[in-house]
Structures are given as C-alpha cells and as structure tokens.
Amino acid sequence: MKPFVLDHADSPDAALAALDAGATAIAGGTNLVDLMKLELATPEKLVSIRRTGLDEISADGDGLMIGALVSNADCAAHRRVREGWPLLAKAILAGASPQLRNRATTGGNLCQRTRCGYFYDSTQACNKREPGSGCAAREGFNRIHAVLGTSDQCIATYPGDMAVAMLALDAVVMTEGPYGPRRIPLAMFHRMPGDEPSRDNVLEAGELITAVRLPAPTGGVQVYRKVRDRASYAFALVSVAVDLAMEEGRIARCALAFGSLGTVPWRDRAVENVLIGEKPTPALFAQAAEVLLKDAQGFGENDFKIPLAARALAATLHEATQTGKA
Amino acid sequence: MALPLADLYNTPDERNLLDTMKQGVIGKPLDRPEGPLKVSGTATYSAEWKRSDCAEGFLVLADIAQGTVKAIHADKVLAMPGVVAVLSDEAMIRRSTQGTAGEAPAQDVHTVDYFGQPVALVVAETFEQAREAAQALEIEYDAAAEPVPLDPQSPDAKIEEPSDSKPVKGGDLDKAMREADYAIDVEYDTPGHASAAMEPHATIAEWDGDRLTLRGSYQMLAFNVKEMADCLSISPKHVRILAPYVGGGFGSKLGITHEAVAAAIASKQLDRPVRVVMTRQQVFQTVMRRSETRQRVRLAADAAGKLVGLGHEARVSNLPDEDFAEPVTQATEFLYGGENRLLKVEVARISRMTAGSVRAPGEAVGMQVLEAAMDELAQKIGMDPIELRKRNLPVKVPVEGTPYSSRKLVEALEQGAESFGWDKCKTEPCQTRNGDWWIGMGVASAARVNVMIPAKARVTLKADGTALVETDQTDIGTGSYAILGQIAGEMLGLPMDKVDVVLGDSELPPGAGSGGSFGAISTGSAVMRACEAIRDKLAKAMGCKAEELELQDGSARHGDARQSLGELTGGKDIVEVGSIKPGKTFKDYSQASYGAFFAEVGVHAFTGEVRVRRMTGAFGFGRVLNAKTARSQCLGGMVWGIGSALTEELAFDVRDGHLVNHDLAEYHVPVHADVPALEVILLEERDAAASPLQAKGVGELGICGAAGAVANAVYNACGVRVRSFPLTLDKIIPHLPDPFASPA
Question: Is B700 assigned a catalytic role?
C-alpha cells in the first residue's frame, strides 16, 4: 500500500478545491480502500467528503434529492424512499451486507468498480486496470462477466444493485465540478468499455457527485429480482428491476433495467415497447427477452447468463403483472 | 488394583468409568470457558501479540506456475522507506506441510512448483511498507523445461497410485453389474475446496540465542515443532510454539506453513521479532487445497435392493512427489455391502498448490457422491432411500471381515426421519410447488472413520483442591478447553470452576493436536488416564480401592468416611501424566461415527437458484462429551455440506494455473442467509473400542454426506440430477421443467 495524505473537507466547495488540487475523493471507502491495498488505485492525496453535509434526503418538488453521502443503509430505510420508490430500497437491501451498507454511500456506490477477478489481480492482463495490456477475462474464467455492451477490450460488468433500480426510476446524477453543475441522467452516467475501458463513467477530473435526484413517484408495481449464487453477500449473476402499471389487464407502462448482464446497468426501451399495451403472457415475456438478448454474446463460462436473463425477466414480469392485477 | 494404564489401547475398556462418576458434568452442554474472551475480543490470536521492536514481513508470490527464480532485483526495494530485508532463502518452504509429516516439506523457494508459491519475503518496519515493497519487487524467472500440466483433466497428466493405499478388490464387479437386476454407473465431479478458516495464517517469530519461539496459528504443535526444527536444521528442543487460540484450521494449519518458516528465518537474520501475516488472497493461493475429484460409482443391486456389487473409483490430484491423495473411498470400504467390489483412488500429478487435508478428507467429497449415487439407485428401484440403506448394512466389513465396534446408522436414519417428517417426502420429483419454488426432500447417510493419535496430558490435583490440566493440545474453536476440563472435573469430582485448562504450548505434554476428529478422544483419553492415576493415589490415601472411591464437589467419600480433596493431597500437589496410543482395538474393530442427513430445499422454478429450507442431522459418535460443543461441530459440518453442495468451488484458470476466486467475496462459503434452521439430534452411544471415554470423533462427521442429502433434495424438488458439484444454477436451468406449467 502506498503512503497517502488524508484530509477532510467540511463543505462541498472545500471538497471541490481539494479535487482541483489533485486529491481523490473518499466517502465510505468500501471499494477504494481495497483498491489501494492492491495498488489498483494509488492516490497520493485523499480528501474525505464525509463531513461535507451532503448526507440529507430532501423533497425536491415531487421528486426526491438523495445526498451523495447518504449511506446505503439510511437510504433504504428512509420512509419516503420506501413509500415512493420501494424499488430503490429493495435493490439496495439486495446488495452487500449490513456492515457495508452502513458504510457505503450513494455517490460512492455509483462509482464502485467491477468485480472482475482479472481486474483485481495484478498478475493478469486487464485493459481496465492497465490500458493496452489485454483482457485475460475474455477467454478466462468469466462466469460473472457481461454478455451485453462488451468490447474487444473489456467484458467486465458494473456489479452494483442500487444503480440498476435508479436506472429504471429515471434518476439523475447531480454533480459539481470545475465547469459548473451538471445533471447527468443515470442512463448516461456509466460508460460502456469501448476502446477506453479504464473509464467506468463520465465524471470528469475534479467533478464531484453531490446528489441523485429521483423524479416523482410513478405509483407503479416495483419488483427487484436479484439472481445470485448464494442468498446474500454475493454480486448478482443477473438482476432485474421493474416498475410497471397495469390497466385493464394490459401493461400500461413499464420501465425495466438489468444488472450484471451488461457492462453497465442496462436499459433497452425496445424491450419496454414490446411489453407496453400488451396482455402479460409467457409468450410476450419470451418475446421481450428475445429483443433484450438479440445482441447478447457469451464468452464461455457466462453463456448461461443469456437464458438466465430471459428466465429472470419472465419471473419478474410474471410477479409484477400478477401483483399489478390485484 | 493396578490400573490398566498401558499406553497402547489394545483392549476395549469396558469399565465405562465416566458413567460411574458422580460429578455429573460430562456430556453437559457447558459453555466454552474461553468463550467470553473470544466474543469480547480479548483472546489473543497469533498476530495480535505485542512484541517490542517487531518487524513486519510480507510474502511475495510467484506469478508463474513452474520454473526457477533467475534473479531477484532487491536493490530498488531495499531503498524504499522502512524496508529492512528481502529474503529468498533455501530453507523457506515451497509447499504447505502435510498433516502429521513431522518433517520439512519441499524447501528452497528458488524453484517454483505452482502459481502463487511464495518465493521471497520482504521485511519492513510496517506492514504497509512491506506490502508496498513486495508489490514493487521484480523477479525474473526461467520457465520450467518440462512443466507438468495445470489441469487435472489434461491427457498429459501423469497418473499414479497413491503411495499409502491400495485398491480394494473383491469378486467380479463387471460381471455383477452385467447380471444385476438394477445397476447404476455414474460419474460425478467435485471441485477443489479451500479451508477458508476465519483467522489467516500468521506467525510471530523471535529468537533468544539459539532458541526460537513462535506465536502462531497451528493445529498440531508436537508435529509443528519437529517440522520447524527440520526446516531450520535445529534441534526440536530449541523450538517452542505458543498457540493458545486458533481461529479455525480445518486442516490448513495441520502442518507448518510458509509464513512461519519465513518469519523464523527473517527473525534470525535480523535479530529481532518478525511477524508474517498472510493476506486472505495469499491464504487461498498458497495453503492446502482439497483436491477436486472425478468419481465413478457403480452400484449393482438384486431385485430386493441388496447390493451385490459396489465400485467407487476416484481420480484426484496433487503436486508431484506429494504422498497425500484425497482418500475418497475411505468410508465406502465399510459403509455398504456388495461382495463384488472395486474401490480405487488414483492421483494426477499437476501444478496447483499442495492438496492435503481439508475438513474430513476423503469422506467430505466421497460420501456426498456415494450418497447421491445411492439415491439414484433408490429412484431406479423405486424404493425408499432409507430402506435401501438399511438393507445394505453389512454385518462385517466387506473383504476385510472386521466387526463394527458400534454403529448407530439405523437409529440415525429412523430418528432423523421421524423428527424431520420424512414420511411427507414424495417419491417422485416435481410434486410440490410453493409459489415460484419447487420443494423437495433428500436423505443421506453420514460416516467418518474414528482416528486416535498418540497423546499425553498432565493433570495436577493441587493441594488447594483444584485441578490443572495441561497439554499442548490446541483449541481451534472446537471446544478443547471445555471438554478436557469436563473430563477432569468428572473424574476428580470437581465443579468446573475448580478446573483450569492450559493448552497450546509446545512445552506441555504433547496431546494429539486438532484434526481428523481425533483431538477430543485422544487427548481426552490421556486426561482421563492421568485422572485415573490421581484417583488411585486418592484411594490409597483414603484406604480404599479406586473403584470404591466417590469424588464429588471437591470431596472424597468411601462408606461413611469423607474428606476434602485438598486434605487428601496431604498438602502436596499430585501430578500425573496420562498417555494413550492407538493399539489393537483399531485393528480388531472397524471404528467410525455414523449419522444421517435430511434436507429440504427450494429450487426456483425460473432461475434455478437452490436454497436449503431446513436440515436435520442425527449423529451417533459414542459418548457425547459436551452436548453444546458437539452440536456446534455438527452444525458447522452441515454448513460446510451446504457450501459443498451449492456454492464452494476453487476456480482455476488453466491457461496459467492461477486461482481466480481467491477471496471470500468470490469463493462462496455459505453466509447466514444460506443457512436455515438446522436441527441436530445427538444419539446416545458408548463405544469401548474407540476410547476409554467411550467416545468417537465428531468434528468432521457433520459434513460427511451432507451435500449428498442436499443434492438428492434438489432432484426430488425439480427432477434435475446434477452430477457436478456445486449445484449452481447454470447447471440446473437447462433441465428445469417449464416454469409456467402447473405442477405434475
């Protein structure tokens, strides 16, 4: 582990000034400290943003503003979140462990890095860790890797749950930075690897997430289904977030997002369009899956994710449309 | 009367002394005396000792699988802040030491045998400095000219017979298979497993002149002393090991490991204490693995479901020249009948970290496969799987012809079935659907050989009427402190607060150590014998025979005479060393602990996820020394069974031989949410052939077959028979029935 200097910022402006001076922001540190131990991240200066006051959840018109420093545990337990956006609470509680959720934050969770074993192992080639070194995962043990949005350079997933729910809920990431504030729709926040897999998201140098904004509650049926190898404390093999409404036996509105299926939290409007206006049937679910997975590509160990995603989608839609009817 | 205190246990001790005692503490579910220290963080584990001027070492692992170290460019690293040394010594060990080796394993880290082998140690003032320098250390290698394969399935892998076991052959199995009314011929795979003990391997070494003291995390101190001495070419008398608390071992700490030898060498060279703690990733990469296995099971049965033939052949793997071969068929030898037999293990020589003992070597993976195959046979015959097992229990061990010392298998199957509600099990799969979940039940037998290891213990009855039990026996979280105290308390008639137990110091009389389920019966027997000798002296002082002496609550009674133990000592401590060695009873009788597992699982109709809903285990292992610690052992074993059935798998990249999932995030041991209500039934049993305690081993019994019950329940739930453990959903979903279809 490389030596580093840790400072505390007591306001967002102080944090931005520190970032401008080359510091790396640390919030919960649940991922960053691991990366530092393994020297996958080697910041010389860290600025803790835990005292910046960005830890409030507040109403914002009909929507909700969740401060970047709100812990996952607090967010999932918040009354307004549970009432208006239960999908978010469910997704957060499906992730990590209580200890980690107490520590991990809203902004930090969006920035967590992949769980690709080749990324974490400096004896292995990884374009995300070391651009140009190659991708050992492509022909390696890639059970947890992506089948959508991959590139020749990288097949790693964004592993989290929270962002998947936020994607289905049309959340917006609020940032401050050297060029002023930005509102980045969650759908635009994470980057597919393309030929620059080292950049996981669109944050610029010196830019700080201050909050995530959720638009008004939809009042829809919300289900988060996380499929994983063990019942807790495991990253998703595939997860599905759905927010839908039924009218007269048909799907009137539907937002769907998928986790650990693509290189980024995955949303495909074409899949939603297949479903909207239709009666929920196994055949319809299968048709939606076909659209979702038409470009899916497995790499051996993760081939199963393709049929699994179709099954998880069917299960989730079945549950949500059954609930929606009642 | 002279007491039969001969070391060798040649004749079953039918006196059953413990049942004639009066104190009433033996078998009771007493708390572990050191428990409060552990849960309050005040039990000092190996890396936690404070030694002044202690330097910190960090192991450097090879990033090639096979070759030789050509050059270590230490200069740059030695200039880094805090770095005091870079060692790559000929005495450092390449491989983990096998349990009970008592000598050094392969030494000289300039040869690389497997990916992740330690090749150097960097020592610095702080752990972080050492780690940073270790990351920066550049090492050049020459690749091996004739590498062995990285994959046990490689056609190039050299296949050998194990050096320490021979195939069991009887009759003509091929013919029996051809002529049987029902025959099963199946092949199963089990993956490699990690011990994944909670406490990583860690050692603090320090020298006082030519005397070495190690504070570390080890299971078998008497052997570890010899191993360390041999590694360093010094006298065992000059090595002392302190290991009062060990945070789990599961086999991975039976023999001395890399960090201990490296710490000792560094400490000698630097003339100051050196601590070496392995990271979690290093533990996964360098210490013992359980070998993966490929097992062929052949079962031939007559029309009545009686086995006429039984084949169990396994291929396992290990590094070249390692004697250990996962003894997959160990319990198959004695569990079921079938006169036409072939039991055989072969070893593929490959390059992966040393394969050795991981909790219940042999039975853990052998029983889970045998019991899954038995379920396949029951299904084929259309017979209740419990009935099939009951019909196939031999009177004597097939081929060998030895009698069984005791065997509570039928009772375990029956009482377990009763408590679990086995009568509700549907005979055909896909009969019960609960929402999105298929529900099913499965059963399996449990069996694990009983092992005794030579052991000694010293018991002192002090002039103040309290007792002190001393041995180098370790407590790896299992309850050694508790049960050894209970044995002494029972034998000497003392309440537990009058008995002190001191363990984990190699200067104390050598107990058995912890492993192979032998710690309690071996060291416990030594304690019992020391107590017998003390009782003898007390009886003499009391003027009666030992068997007439009643000891209870610190008092001795004979007829109307009554004296306190303190008075009886005459003001002088009575010190006795008890000793036991396995003798003829281990040849005359087949000794094993038995049991039965019952599992109910849910299989998600859409996603194929398997979750255990409840589990019952019923176990007979002779006398229960402490109902709480024994139950905990069984619970822990069943949890291992869940992991072995559903999630645990060492994933190697066969291109370069590295272990991909070398942490607890990706090597999936069961977490709380995977472990539902587990029920443990302890059966009353006495086994005089197994030990004077009338007890047998229980530490590993709870695993041996557990995963089979889970796999059988998966089949019963959804009709999918997966012959490759663990039963991850990717292996299940291709075969699941249509999730939208109504249950059959």
Answer: yes
